[in-house]
Amino acid sequence: MPHPSQTRDSAEAETSGAEETVSFGYREVPRDQKAPLVRDVFELVASRYDMMNDLMSLGVHRLWKDAFVRLLDPQPGLRLIDVAGGTGDVALRVAERLAKPSGTSGSDGEIVVVDLTEGMLRQGRDRAIDRGFLEGLSWVCGDALALPLPPRSLDAYTIAFGLRNVTDIDGALAEARRVLRPGGRFLCLEFSHVVLPVLDRAYDLYSFQVLPRLGGVVAGDRDSYQYLVESIRRFPPQADLAAKLETAGFARARWRNLSGGIAAIHSGWRI
Protein backbone atom coordinates (compact mmCIF):
# COMPACT_ATOMS: atom_id res chain seq x y z
CA MET A 1 0.00 0.00 0.00
CA PRO A 2 1.55 3.37 -0.96
CA HIS A 3 2.44 5.88 1.71
CA PRO A 4 -0.03 8.83 1.88
CA SER A 5 2.73 11.24 0.84
CA GLN A 6 3.42 9.15 -2.25
CA THR A 7 -0.27 9.26 -3.20
CA ARG A 8 -0.32 13.03 -2.72
CA ASP A 9 2.86 13.50 -4.78
CA SER A 10 1.40 11.37 -7.56
CA ALA A 11 -1.82 13.41 -7.60
CA GLU A 12 0.14 16.67 -7.69
CA ALA A 13 2.23 15.38 -10.56
CA GLU A 14 -0.89 14.48 -12.51
CA THR A 15 -2.38 17.92 -11.83
CA SER A 16 0.76 19.78 -12.81
CA GLY A 17 1.00 17.72 -15.97
CA ALA A 18 -2.60 18.35 -16.95
CA GLU A 19 -3.06 20.80 -19.82
CA GLU A 20 -4.43 24.15 -18.69
CA THR A 21 -7.64 25.18 -20.40
CA VAL A 22 -9.42 28.51 -20.91
CA SER A 23 -12.87 29.41 -22.13
CA PHE A 24 -13.63 29.91 -25.80
CA GLY A 25 -17.29 30.80 -25.55
CA TYR A 26 -18.89 27.90 -23.70
CA ARG A 27 -16.11 25.51 -24.71
CA GLU A 28 -12.93 24.84 -22.79
CA VAL A 29 -9.85 24.75 -25.02
CA PRO A 30 -6.12 24.38 -24.32
CA ARG A 31 -4.67 27.73 -23.34
CA ASP A 32 -2.34 27.96 -26.32
CA GLN A 33 -5.19 27.37 -28.77
CA LYS A 34 -7.44 30.29 -27.81
CA ALA A 35 -5.53 33.06 -29.60
CA PRO A 36 -5.42 31.16 -32.92
CA LEU A 37 -9.14 30.37 -32.60
CA VAL A 38 -9.97 34.03 -31.90
CA ARG A 39 -7.80 35.07 -34.83
CA ASP A 40 -9.68 32.67 -37.10
CA VAL A 41 -13.03 34.07 -35.97
CA PHE A 42 -12.09 37.64 -36.81
CA GLU A 43 -10.35 36.78 -40.07
CA LEU A 44 -13.63 35.23 -41.18
CA VAL A 45 -15.78 38.23 -40.22
CA ALA A 46 -13.33 41.09 -40.91
CA SER A 47 -14.81 42.28 -44.21
CA ARG A 48 -18.32 42.49 -42.77
CA TYR A 49 -17.48 43.24 -39.15
CA ASP A 50 -18.55 46.89 -39.16
CA MET A 51 -21.75 46.21 -41.09
CA MET A 52 -22.63 43.42 -38.66
CA ASN A 53 -22.03 45.74 -35.70
CA ASP A 54 -24.57 48.17 -37.15
CA LEU A 55 -27.10 45.41 -37.76
CA MET A 56 -26.64 43.66 -34.41
CA SER A 57 -26.84 46.81 -32.30
CA LEU A 58 -29.21 48.76 -34.58
CA GLY A 59 -26.45 51.35 -34.77
CA VAL A 60 -26.27 51.88 -31.01
CA HIS A 61 -22.61 50.77 -30.89
CA ARG A 62 -21.77 54.08 -32.57
CA LEU A 63 -23.29 56.00 -29.66
CA TRP A 64 -21.38 53.82 -27.17
CA LYS A 65 -18.08 54.51 -28.96
CA ASP A 66 -18.83 58.22 -29.12
CA ALA A 67 -19.39 58.22 -25.35
CA PHE A 68 -16.19 56.20 -24.90
CA VAL A 69 -14.08 58.75 -26.78
CA ARG A 70 -15.75 61.68 -25.04
CA LEU A 71 -14.75 60.15 -21.71
CA LEU A 72 -11.18 59.76 -22.96
CA ASP A 73 -11.25 63.46 -23.92
CA PRO A 74 -8.23 63.34 -26.27
CA GLN A 75 -5.89 66.33 -26.09
CA PRO A 76 -3.17 67.40 -28.56
CA GLY A 77 0.01 65.38 -28.16
CA LEU A 78 -1.81 62.32 -26.81
CA ARG A 79 0.14 59.05 -26.99
CA LEU A 80 -2.51 56.32 -27.22
CA ILE A 81 -2.59 52.59 -27.79
CA ASP A 82 -5.89 51.16 -28.99
CA VAL A 83 -5.81 47.41 -28.44
CA ALA A 84 -8.05 45.06 -30.44
CA GLY A 85 -8.87 48.15 -32.50
CA GLY A 86 -8.47 46.55 -35.91
CA THR A 87 -11.09 48.30 -38.02
CA GLY A 88 -10.27 51.67 -36.48
CA ASP A 89 -13.65 52.64 -35.05
CA VAL A 90 -12.15 54.08 -31.87
CA ALA A 91 -8.79 55.17 -33.29
CA LEU A 92 -10.39 57.20 -36.08
CA ARG A 93 -12.76 58.89 -33.65
CA VAL A 94 -9.76 59.92 -31.57
CA ALA A 95 -7.83 60.99 -34.69
CA GLU A 96 -10.73 63.21 -35.73
CA ARG A 97 -10.67 64.87 -32.31
CA LEU A 98 -6.92 65.44 -32.73
CA ALA A 99 -7.06 66.44 -36.39
CA LYS A 100 -4.42 68.93 -37.53
CA PRO A 101 -5.46 72.25 -39.11
CA SER A 102 -7.09 72.15 -42.52
CA GLY A 103 -4.69 71.49 -45.35
CA THR A 104 -2.54 68.99 -43.44
CA SER A 105 -2.98 65.27 -42.95
CA GLY A 106 -2.90 63.15 -39.82
CA SER A 107 -3.57 63.97 -36.19
CA ASP A 108 -1.82 65.94 -33.48
CA GLY A 109 -0.94 62.87 -31.47
CA GLU A 110 0.38 59.34 -31.77
CA ILE A 111 -2.10 56.48 -32.03
CA VAL A 112 -0.93 52.88 -32.21
CA VAL A 113 -3.61 50.37 -33.16
CA VAL A 114 -2.79 46.79 -32.14
CA ASP A 115 -4.88 43.84 -33.24
CA LEU A 116 -4.37 40.09 -33.33
CA THR A 117 -5.89 39.80 -36.80
CA GLU A 118 -4.27 41.11 -39.98
CA GLY A 119 -7.61 41.11 -41.82
CA MET A 120 -9.11 43.52 -39.27
CA LEU A 121 -6.07 45.80 -39.52
CA ARG A 122 -6.39 45.95 -43.30
CA GLN A 123 -9.93 47.21 -42.88
CA GLY A 124 -8.76 49.90 -40.46
CA ARG A 125 -5.82 51.04 -42.60
CA ASP A 126 -8.07 51.35 -45.65
CA ARG A 127 -10.61 53.41 -43.71
CA ALA A 128 -7.87 55.69 -42.37
CA ILE A 129 -6.51 56.32 -45.87
CA ASP A 130 -10.01 56.99 -47.21
CA ARG A 131 -10.49 59.62 -44.49
CA GLY A 132 -7.13 61.26 -45.15
CA PHE A 133 -5.34 60.14 -41.99
CA LEU A 134 -1.91 59.39 -43.41
CA GLU A 135 0.15 60.39 -40.36
CA GLY A 136 -0.10 59.86 -36.63
CA LEU A 137 -1.65 56.40 -36.93
CA SER A 138 0.25 53.10 -36.98
CA TRP A 139 -1.21 49.62 -37.35
CA VAL A 140 0.49 46.70 -35.61
CA CYS A 141 -0.42 43.01 -35.66
CA GLY A 142 0.17 41.94 -32.07
CA ASP A 143 -1.18 40.39 -28.88
CA ALA A 144 -2.68 42.23 -25.92
CA LEU A 145 -0.53 40.01 -23.69
CA ALA A 146 2.76 41.15 -25.26
CA LEU A 147 2.49 44.71 -26.53
CA PRO A 148 5.43 45.84 -28.69
CA LEU A 149 6.03 49.05 -26.75
CA PRO A 150 8.40 50.05 -23.92
CA PRO A 151 7.25 50.51 -20.33
CA ARG A 152 5.70 53.80 -19.23
CA SER A 153 5.58 55.14 -22.80
CA LEU A 154 1.90 56.01 -23.27
CA ASP A 155 -0.70 58.43 -21.93
CA ALA A 156 -3.75 56.26 -22.54
CA TYR A 157 -4.81 52.69 -23.30
CA THR A 158 -8.16 51.87 -24.88
CA ILE A 159 -9.73 48.53 -25.73
CA ALA A 160 -13.24 48.26 -27.16
CA PHE A 161 -15.03 44.91 -27.42
CA GLY A 162 -11.74 43.05 -27.23
CA LEU A 163 -10.91 42.29 -23.60
CA ARG A 164 -13.29 39.34 -23.46
CA ASN A 165 -11.39 37.71 -26.34
CA VAL A 166 -7.93 37.70 -24.74
CA THR A 167 -6.55 34.48 -23.33
CA ASP A 168 -5.76 36.01 -19.94
CA ILE A 169 -7.66 39.11 -18.79
CA ASP A 170 -5.43 39.63 -15.76
CA GLY A 171 -2.35 39.36 -17.97
CA ALA A 172 -3.78 41.93 -20.41
CA LEU A 173 -4.48 44.36 -17.58
CA ALA A 174 -0.94 43.93 -16.27
CA GLU A 175 0.41 44.61 -19.76
CA ALA A 176 -1.80 47.71 -20.03
CA ARG A 177 -0.33 49.02 -16.78
CA ARG A 178 3.20 48.27 -17.98
CA VAL A 179 2.96 50.47 -21.09
CA LEU A 180 1.17 53.37 -19.38
CA ARG A 181 3.06 56.17 -17.70
CA PRO A 182 2.19 56.98 -14.08
CA GLY A 183 -1.06 58.91 -14.25
CA GLY A 184 -1.98 57.28 -17.56
CA ARG A 185 -5.60 56.41 -18.33
CA PHE A 186 -7.11 52.97 -18.94
CA LEU A 187 -10.48 52.70 -20.67
CA CYS A 188 -12.34 49.56 -21.68
CA LEU A 189 -15.64 49.43 -23.57
CA GLU A 190 -17.13 45.96 -23.47
CA PHE A 191 -20.38 44.06 -23.58
CA SER A 192 -21.33 43.44 -19.97
CA HIS A 193 -24.12 42.13 -17.76
CA VAL A 194 -27.61 43.63 -18.04
CA VAL A 195 -28.84 45.12 -14.78
CA LEU A 196 -32.52 45.62 -15.68
CA PRO A 197 -34.70 42.53 -14.94
CA VAL A 198 -36.98 42.78 -17.97
CA LEU A 199 -34.26 43.82 -20.39
CA ASP A 200 -31.99 40.93 -19.44
CA ARG A 201 -34.52 38.32 -20.58
CA ALA A 202 -35.23 40.13 -23.84
CA TYR A 203 -31.51 40.56 -24.46
CA ASP A 204 -30.82 36.87 -23.86
CA LEU A 205 -33.54 35.90 -26.34
CA TYR A 206 -32.21 38.34 -28.94
CA SER A 207 -28.59 37.30 -28.39
CA PHE A 208 -29.02 33.55 -28.66
CA GLN A 209 -31.89 33.33 -31.13
CA VAL A 210 -31.33 36.27 -33.48
CA LEU A 211 -27.64 37.19 -33.59
CA PRO A 212 -26.19 33.83 -34.70
CA ARG A 213 -28.85 33.55 -37.41
CA LEU A 214 -28.10 37.10 -38.53
CA GLY A 215 -24.41 36.20 -38.70
CA GLY A 216 -25.25 33.16 -40.79
CA VAL A 217 -27.38 35.11 -43.26
CA VAL A 218 -25.35 38.32 -43.61
CA ALA A 219 -21.77 37.23 -42.89
CA GLY A 220 -22.18 33.59 -43.88
CA ASP A 221 -20.73 32.53 -40.54
CA ARG A 222 -23.17 31.52 -37.81
CA ASP A 223 -20.52 29.80 -35.66
CA SER A 224 -18.39 32.93 -35.19
CA TYR A 225 -21.36 34.93 -33.95
CA GLN A 226 -22.41 32.08 -31.69
CA TYR A 227 -18.94 32.32 -30.12
CA LEU A 228 -19.23 36.10 -29.77
CA VAL A 229 -22.55 35.76 -27.92
CA GLU A 230 -21.15 33.08 -25.63
CA SER A 231 -17.99 35.07 -24.92
CA ILE A 232 -20.11 37.94 -23.62
CA ARG A 233 -21.75 35.63 -21.08
CA ARG A 234 -18.36 34.38 -19.87
CA PHE A 235 -17.04 37.92 -19.31
CA PRO A 236 -16.76 39.09 -15.67
CA PRO A 237 -19.60 41.22 -14.26
CA GLN A 238 -18.94 44.92 -13.82
CA ALA A 239 -17.88 44.79 -10.15
CA ASP A 240 -15.60 41.81 -10.76
CA LEU A 241 -13.79 43.55 -13.61
CA ALA A 242 -13.37 46.68 -11.49
CA ALA A 243 -11.79 44.51 -8.81
CA LYS A 244 -9.41 43.05 -11.39
CA LEU A 245 -8.39 46.58 -12.38
CA GLU A 246 -7.59 47.44 -8.78
CA THR A 247 -5.60 44.22 -8.35
CA ALA A 248 -3.62 45.11 -11.49
CA GLY A 249 -2.61 48.42 -9.93
CA PHE A 250 -5.17 50.87 -11.32
CA ALA A 251 -6.63 53.53 -9.04
CA ARG A 252 -10.21 54.83 -9.04
CA ALA A 253 -11.48 51.81 -10.93
CA ARG A 254 -15.09 52.38 -11.84
CA TRP A 255 -17.63 51.66 -14.53
CA ARG A 256 -20.52 53.31 -16.33
CA ASN A 257 -23.34 51.16 -17.68
CA LEU A 258 -24.65 51.82 -21.17
CA SER A 259 -28.11 50.76 -22.36
CA GLY A 260 -28.95 49.13 -19.04
CA GLY A 261 -25.68 47.23 -18.83
CA ILE A 262 -25.69 45.71 -22.31
CA ALA A 263 -22.33 47.43 -22.50
CA ALA A 264 -20.18 49.20 -19.93
CA ILE A 265 -17.20 51.53 -19.88
CA HIS A 266 -14.57 50.65 -17.28
CA SER A 267 -11.89 53.15 -16.37
CA GLY A 268 -8.90 53.48 -14.10
CA TRP A 269 -5.66 55.41 -13.63
CA ARG A 270 -2.20 53.91 -13.65
CA ILE A 271 -0.43 54.49 -10.35
Relevant terms:
alpha/beta; disordered N terminus; single chain; 271 residues; Rossmann fold; 7-stranded mixed beta sheet; 10 helices; 48% helix; globular; two-stranded antiparallel sheet
Tell me what you see in this structure:
The chain has ten helices and nine strands. The protein has 271 residues and is an alpha/beta fold. It has one domain: 3-Layer(aba) Sandwich (Rossmann fold). The protein has a seven-stranded mixed β-sheet with strand order 5-4-3-6-7-9-8, with helices on both faces. Strand 4, helix 6 and strand 5 form a beta-alpha-beta unit. Helix 3 packs antiparallel against helix 8, helix 4 packs across helix 5 and helix 8 runs antiparallel to helix 9. It is globular and about 45 Å long. The relative contact order is 0.13. The N terminus is likely disordered.
Give a quick summary of the entry.
With about 270 residues, the protein is α/β, with parallel strands linked by helices.
SSE topology sketch:
Layout: H1 4-17, E1 21-24, E2 27-30, H2 31-45, H3 49-57, H4 60-72, E3 78-83, H5 89-97, E4 109-115, H6 118-130, E5 137-141, E6 154-160, H7 169-179, E7 180-191, H8 197-219, H9 222-234, H10 238-247, E8 250-258, E9 263-270
Parallel strand pairs: 3-4, 3-6, 4-5, 6-7
Antiparallel strand pairs: 1-2, 7-9, 8-9
**Uncertain residue segments:** 1-17
Number of strands: 9
* Integer-rounded radius of gyration: 20 Å
Do you know the CATH topology? Rossmann fold
Beta-strand level of the residues, as a percent range? 15-25%
Q: What is the level-2 CATH architecture name?
A: 3-Layer(aba) Sandwich
Strand order of the largest sheet: 5-4-3-6-7-9-8
Question: In CATH, what is the homologous superfamily?
Answer: Vaccinia Virus protein VP39
Overall 3D form: globular
The helix/strand order is HEEHHHEHEHEEHEHHHEE
What do the pLDDT scores average to?
A: 89
Tell me the domain tally: 1
For the record, give the distance between the C-alpha atoms at the N and C termini, rounded to a whole number. Answer: 55 Å
- Treating each run of at least 4 consecutive H or I residues as one helix, how many helices? 10
Which structural class best describes the helix and strand composition? alpha/beta
Query: What is the subunit arrangement here?
Result: single chain
For the record, what CATH class applies? Alpha Beta
Portion in helices = 40-55%
